[in-house]
Amino acid sequence: MSELTPEEYAVAEAQPRINWVAARAMLRSEARLLARNPAVVIWTAILPVAASIVLGAIPGVRAPSKDLGGISFFEVYQPILIFFAITLLAMQALPDVLTRYREIGVLKRLRTTPVSPALLLLAQLTLMLTVSITCMLLMVIVPALVGAPWPHNLGGFVIAYLLGAWAMFGLGMVIASLFHNAKVASGFGSFLFFVLQFFAGLWWQRPNMPDWLRHISDFTPSGAAVQSLTDSSLGDWPSALHLVVLAVWGVVTSRLAVRLFSWE
Amino acid sequence: MPVIEVSDLRKVYGERTVVDGVSFAVEQGEIFGILGPNGAGKTTTVECIGGLRRRDGGTIRVAGMDPAAEGVAFRTALGIQLQESRLPDKMSVREALDLYASFYPRPHDPNDLLERLGLVEQRSTYFSKLSGGQKQRLSVALALVGNPRVAILDELTTGLDPVARREVWDLLEDLRGTGVTLLLVSHFMEEAERLCDRVVVIDHGRVIAADTPEGLAGSVQADQRMSFTPSGPFDLAVLQALPDVHSATAVGERIMVTGTDNVASAVIIELHERGVSVGRLRVDQPSLDDAFVALTSDDARAAGEEVLR
């Protein structure tokens, strides 16, 4: 086995900070591993996607309801279900995979190679985001094809979705940073999942919450995201408050995760 | 010029000094062993060399580079097999090699590595389905796939059964002469005796001996031991009177004798003159094991005295 010449070392040292060949190989490898453990994706996707399609297909559910402040049951629940999928991926799947990689020493092993283990985190985030966007598209397009309304303000919808996803995956990264034991991380993730779903209005719809509770919900990432998505679906723009809340959650959790995350 | 130079390396965790002034140099192409009991500071030492830990003192140069700078060129020059590092369960051997090959500017051909490491038949096998020896061989392959100048192998054969251990040893012997420098961390003396050109013994964070394995084994004042089954009865006092014999005892039908380097011939000649022949003879040289035990127990005693003072 021949070694590199000094010139080749200089070339290696001068490589751009992101090695795209390695990034592509890592993404392909992570995608393959995800495909070999399909349970994660199936369980994340099936329930919300099936529920939103069923709801979209039932005419009665699409009619405005007085109990829900004049909007339909479908319009209340579609954003909640879309966010359900992101939350499940961000609170459960992402921390689970990352803490496990840390536990088995994959991240530490990568540190000894010319590429950074940060590439692996990026590959995972890219995959998880791709899965959640696919779920979202299914939950918007399929119900629309069977007669449910399209989101009326598409621009607002996309902005609300992306900001919400940023806040949630940021939070997932914080969980993966705080907990080094995969089982503990997944337990905490489940707990947080239910709290977030509560504020999103899964059991108690936001229009029906008492004012004080809705105000708290306004400042949670799930409450702000679901309201922004709902506003956009109905043709309005998301309120500045909700967008700012989501952006702040995104910034704070990302910075926290970058500071707290350790490879070992 | 040495490819690895470590001088006066220090690493402190809180109040505890884990590595306390370790120095050694490794030449290109050598198989160099770092030996020592558990908790001696071996892994911390190689993790400092590998750039995974920041040292608190001393200097390290690997192929002329400082690991603390954590440059890409440094990590290209070095391949590491970490203790207890695993891969995702459902990643196959070939996929792992291809993935790690993509990290390096001029990787070694994965097909050649599969062949060299005897993993051709396992190329599509998932990591979780490999045997212990196969997993370790894959780890060696991953440490070598970047064509490194130096490969660090930490406790490579710990936890393997004797057959798998020999497989891994054979493989490392095959790597001798390929130009790659191997830094081997072990607490197995047999491993060091078989593979290493030179070794250092580390205990309590310090180098307590540095030599070839044979030199180290020869340096300890250990008696030669022999045992045999005599063809007939004789008086043990006859042997005990010989100047080369330090002790002679009977254990069942076997006679155990310890003494100087000449003890075996002295005993055989003496008994031959009395018409007794020596059957099922066994002579044990002082081994690296003995040297290791002697060295580390002396060191423990010295450390104890220091504490008392």
Description:
The complex is a heterodimer of chains A (264) and B (309). Helix content of chain A is 75%, strand content 0%. Chain A is globular. Chain A is an all-alpha fold and 264 residues long. Chain A is built from 12 helices and no strands. The mean pLDDT of chain A is 87. Chain A has helices spanning 6-13, 20-36, 39-57, 59-62, 73-103, 106-111, 118-145, 154-178, 182-200, 211-218, 221-233, 240-260. In chain A, helix 3 (39-57) runs antiparallel to helix 5 (73-103). With 309 residues, chain B is of the alpha/beta class. Chain B has 2 domains: 4-212, P-loop containing nucleotide triphosphate hydrolases (Rossmann fold), CATH 3.40.50.300; 224-284, Alpha-Beta Plaits. Helices cover 35% and strands 28% of the residues of chain B. The two termini of chain B are 41 Å apart. In chain B, 44% of the residues are buried. The model of chain B has no long low-confidence stretch (mean pLDDT 86).
CATH topology of the largest domain in chain B, what is it called? Rossmann fold
Q: Bin the strand percentage of chain A.
A: under 5%
Beta content of chain B: 25-35%
Shape of chain A: globular
Termini separation of chain B: 41 Å
N-to-C series of helices and strands of chain B: EEEHEHEHHHEHEHEEHEHEEHEH
Number of separate domains of chain B: 2
Q: Please name the CATH architecture of the largest domain in chain B.
A: 3-Layer(aba) Sandwich
Question: How many helices of chain B in DSSP terms?
Answer: 11
End-to-end distance of chain A: 31 Å
Helix content of chain B: 25-40%
Q: What is the CA-based Rg of chain B, rounded?
A: 24 Å
CA-based shape of chain B: globular
Instruction: Please state how the strands of the largest beta sheet of chain B are arranged side by side.
Output: 5-6-7-3-8-9
In short:
The complex is a heterodimer of chains A (264) and B (309). In chain A, 75% of the residues lie in helices and 0% in strands.
